[in-house]
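The authors assume throughout that readers already know how a fold can be written as discrete tokens. What matters is that the chain and its backbone geometry are given together, residue for residue. A single example would do more here than another paragraph of explanation. For illustration, here is how one protein appears when written out as sequence plus structure tokens.
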Amino acid sequence: MASYVFTVLGDDRPGLVDHLSGVVSRHHGNWERSQMARLGGKFAGIVQVGVPDQHADDLRAALEALDDPGTLDVSVDIAVDHTASRDPESSEDIADGHDGRRLVVSLVGTDRPGLVHAVSAAMAAVGANIDELTTSTTDAPMSGDPLFEATATVTLPHDVDMNTLRTRLEALADRLMVDIALSV
């Protein structure tokens, strides 16, 4: 069984996911995992598909043929063997080969440039790997000021004490005047 990860970026339009999933299905592929979103009038996504070896080259060629400069950008890569890293308790991949403990880091605060960089730098400094990151901005309920929210799923190496990361994040939260929470 082969596994591919492909990314897609293009102008948002109805039927785009149907078109992509149709190509996968017609070439005997199985749509396994994906993250997709509409941002700034564009549609962006990353998809992991599995396909029997005898159909792998045809599926890759069909996905690459969808690439249309200026309209739809598609990039296809071979995925890391995701079956070897399954966590039987959660049926989720364990960070695609990153061994460690899964944690969730949440941030809420007044929006300003540099928040993602500051938090990601604090995590990288202790060897934490960001597996998933979701961010958004909304209007604060009372003031209407822009409010930034982020949630990251991270893998912390087993040899790093969780309190080390917690201490760094708490110091950062105080300095940036935001709320940062760390949970297991």
